[in-house]
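so my prof wants the structure for this chain in the tokens format not the other one, which i didnt know existed until like an hour ago. anyway here's the sequence
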Amino acid sequence: MSNKPITFRRPEAEDGSALYALIRACPPLDENSMYCNLLQCTHFSATSVVAERDRQLVGAISGYLVPGREDTLFIWQVAVSESARGQGLGGRMISDILARPECSGVRYLETTVTASNEASWALFKGFARRADAPLEETELFESKRHFNGEKPTEILARIGPLASADLQPGSTEPKQEMIA
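here's what i got, hopefully its the right format
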């Protein structure tokens, strides 16, 4: 474990291949095409974040404001390298996104998680607890009906409403945090 600072920033096109490699190293995340990761880094950069330590990607979240429901941030993927796990990085990355001006109207956070993904459940339940907001679970994409039985059911986790105090406005400049 390194004591070098972790820097948060918006992803850029040049991060696409590193994001692709990070996601591939983080099962059970779905691997997307590198082109999809490039779009996450460009079209969705305002609602996504990368975390770097010593110029290496150690974490990333891709997200977007749900069309027609701009009060809802949907977290698409959370990836944390093995070297940075267990340090609360996922929750801090979510907070970094929510503190941005583009998310000033966000009152709900949504994501989908499979029942067996304990790390993701711990992240989102912990976030809901810290935000003092309810977390509702509903089945969104059923295994047989939506995935031809090739993938587990995806459960929609909806957290909110988030109080405005949970969403402190933040700078869009890179942030550094020391992780011991």
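also thought this was worth mentioning. Residues 165-180 have pLDDT under 50 and may be disordered.
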